[in-house]
Amino acid sequence: MTPLRCRKPEALTGSNERESAEEKDELGGVSGSAAREDGQEEKSERVQSSNQRSAAGVVQHLVRGLFGLLAAVACGTLYAVFLSAHHDRKFWFSARQELERELSFQGGSGLYYHFYKQMLAAPSFAEGFYQLLVDNGTVSGQTINSVERFFLYPELFLSFIYRVSGVQDYVEPVYFYIGAVLGLQAFCVTALFVCSWMMSGTWVAGVLTVSWYLVNRQDVSKVVQAVPLRDNWAVPYFSCQVAALTGFLITNMSSAAEMFCSLTMSISTFTFLLLWEHAHYVLFVQGLCLLLMDSLDLVPQKKTDHVQKIYLSSLVLVYLIHFQNSSLLSSPLLSLLIGFMLARYFQRRMKMGPFVARLLKLLLHLHLVFTCGITFSYSMKKLLPAAGSHLLLKLLEVKFGLKSTSDFVTNFLLCHDELQTPGQDLFLRLTQTSLLPFYILVLSICLLSTLQTVYRRLSGQPISSRVRLEDGRIGEQPAVIYHVFHSLAFGFLTLVFDGMKYLWTPYICMLTASGVCSPQLWMTVFKWLKLKSVHPVVLSLILSTAVPTIICFSLWREFYPRVLSELLDLQEFCEPDLVELINWIRSQAPAAAVFAGSPQLLGTIKLCSGSVVTSLPIFTDVDLLRRTEDSYQVYAMRSAEDVYKRLTAQKTSYVIIEESICNEVWTQHGCRVKDLLDISNRHVVHSEGEMFSLSKHGRFCQEIKMDYSPYTNYFTRVFWNRSYHVYKVNSVLSFQF
C-alpha cells in the first residue's frame, strides 16, 4: 500500500512564513531601536564632553586674558609712578617754588605750559579760547592764531577738564598738567604691552617689552627733560594706533574684535594727526609699508582699503578742525593715498600671471603710485604755496649732500641734535641692554621668512588663511610682515636722524619681545634646520618660555639696582642767574616791553613773565625762524646801526645777550651760532684750511660790552650777571663821541 502523505496548503504555508517574517521584523526592530538609543546616548555623551571641554577652554582663555590685562595695566601704572618719582627727584619738584618749577620745563618747552596757564587765568573757557584765536600778545607786531600755529589742543582740552572737574582745591595746575602727560606715557606702555601680547600669544612678551622700555628710557622718550613737548602728547596715540592696526591685520580675529580694532585705529589716527605737526610724516612711512604689502599681495585688499579710508577721513577731519591747514593738503600722506587709488584704477589685474609678469607689473604699479603722488603734491604746492614744504626739501638735499648752502635757517636746523646722525653711543646702550642683539636675531628670521612668502606669492602660490605652529612660517602672518617692513623703515631713518630713535626704540622693544616669546619664530628656525632629534614643536614651546625668562632675570639683576639708585639720588638743578633775570623782568621791565634773544630763552621768558617776545622755540615755522635769525645778529660781526635797525623792525624794547652763546668755544663742527651767522653773512672765507675774516666790524656781543660809542648811542645796559646781559634798545638816539 502506498502511504498517504498530507501536504500543507500553500495558503497555510504562506501565512506561516509571513508570521515568522513578522516575528523576525519585530525582533530586528527591537534590536535596531536599542542600537539607535545606544548611538544617541554615545553621541550625547560626546557632545556633552566636547561642550565641557569648550567651556573649560573659554574659561581658561578668559582667565588668561584677565591676568594679561591686569599685567598690562599694572605695568603702565608702575611706569607712570616711576616717571613721577624720577621727575620729582631730578628737579626737586615738590620742594621748589612756582618759578623754579616752571624753569624745569627745559628747551623752551615751557611755552606750551604758558598757554595752559593763560587758559586757566581767563574769566571763562570761551574767552580764553578767543584770546588764543586772536593773539597779539605773544609775537611782537603780529596777531596770530596760536591754536593753529602751535597745536594747542592738549592745553585746551586739559584746561577745560581742570575747570569742570572741580579738582582746583585738591590738585595744583602744574601737577594736573604733568600728571596728564605721565598718564599718557602709561597709556603708551600699555599699548606696546598689548601689541606684543597679540603678536606672540602670551602676555610674558608684554612684560619683557616694558622691561626693555624701562631700561632704555633715555632713548624712548623726552618726557623727563621736556614734559610739554608735542610728541610726548602724540606718540602714545601712535602706539595705540599701531596696536589696533596689528589686531586688524591678524587673520584669525573675530568680526567683533576686528570692528573694535578698526574703531580704535580711527580714533587714535585722528587724535595723532590733531596733536602733532609731524604726525602725517610718520603715517606716510606707515602707509608706504601697507602699500608694499598690498602690492605684493601679502594682505587682503579689503583691509588695506579700509586703512586708507581711515587715513583719508582723519586727514579731512583734522583739516576742517585745524582751521583749514594747507600743509595737510600738500602732505606726503595725502599724495600717497591719491597716487595709490589712481594706480589701482588704471591697473586692475596686477596680481595675476607668472612670476616675471607679476614682477614687471609690480614695478609698473609702484612707478604709477609715486608718479601720480608726486604730480598731485607738486600741483597742490603750486596752488597752495607752503614755505615749510620747500624748507623740508632743502633740508633733505643738504642733509644727503646733494647740495650745499650758506642759509642760516637751513644750517641752524641741521645742527639740532634730532637732525644729526646718531653716534655710536646709542647702539652701544642698546647692546648693553641686550635689546639690539636679540632685535637683529628676530628681524633676520622674520625677514627671511617674509622673503620666502613674497617669492611664493609672486609665483602664484596662495597663502593659507590659518597658519599652524607646525608649519613654521612666521613670515606668512600679515601682522608680522607689516612690523618687519615698518621696523626697517624706522631703522633706516634712525641711522640718518637721531630724533627718530624716539619712535624706533619703543618699536623694537615691542617687536623683539614678541619675537623671542613666539613659538612660531623658533619653529621657523627648526623647520629650516630640519630638526629631528627632538620634537620641534615641544622645543619651540620650551624656548619661547625659557629665553624671555632668562632675559627678564638678567635685566632685573643688572638694571634694577640702577633704577633704584636713580630714584634715591637727589640731582642738583639750580639756575640762579636765570632766576635773577626773570625776577628783574617781573619787577623792573614794563608790562608792554618786547624782548629779543635766543628762542629757548624767549620761551622761558614768555612762560615765567608773560612778556611779548620777538621769536619762539618753534622750529617748524619759517617766519619765526627768520625772526630768530634777525635776533641772533647780536652774535655776528655787524655794526651797531645794522643790529639796531633789525631789532627795531621787530619792535624790540630789550635785547638779551647770553655769555654761553657769545663765548661758545666748541660744539659740533661748524654748528656754533657765531659760525653759522658768519657763513650766512659771508663775513668769513675758508682757504687751505685757514679761516679769514672779511668784516670790518668786530663781533657785536663782545664789542658792546666795551661800553663805547657808537654802541652806547643805540643801546643802554640795564641788567647783567655772569650769564646774561640785558640792553635797552634806545628809542631816542643820543650820539656821544
TrEMBL record:
Any Pfam family the entry gives: Dpy19
Membrane topology of the entry: Multi-pass membrane protein
Biased composition (Basic and acidic residues): 35-46
Any one GO molecular function term: mannosyltransferase activity
Residue intervals passing through the bilayer: 62-82, 174-192, 257-275, 329-347, 359-380, 436-458, 503-525, 537-556
Keyword annotations from UniProtKB, A to Z: Glycosyltransferase, Membrane, Transferase, Transmembrane, Transmembrane helix
Compartments, as annotated in UniProt: Membrane
GO cellular component: nuclear inner membrane
Region (Disordered) location: 1-51
Main location: membrane
Family indicated by similarity: Belongs to the dpy-19 family.
Stated name of the protein: Dpy-19-like 4
Organism: Nothobranchius korthausae
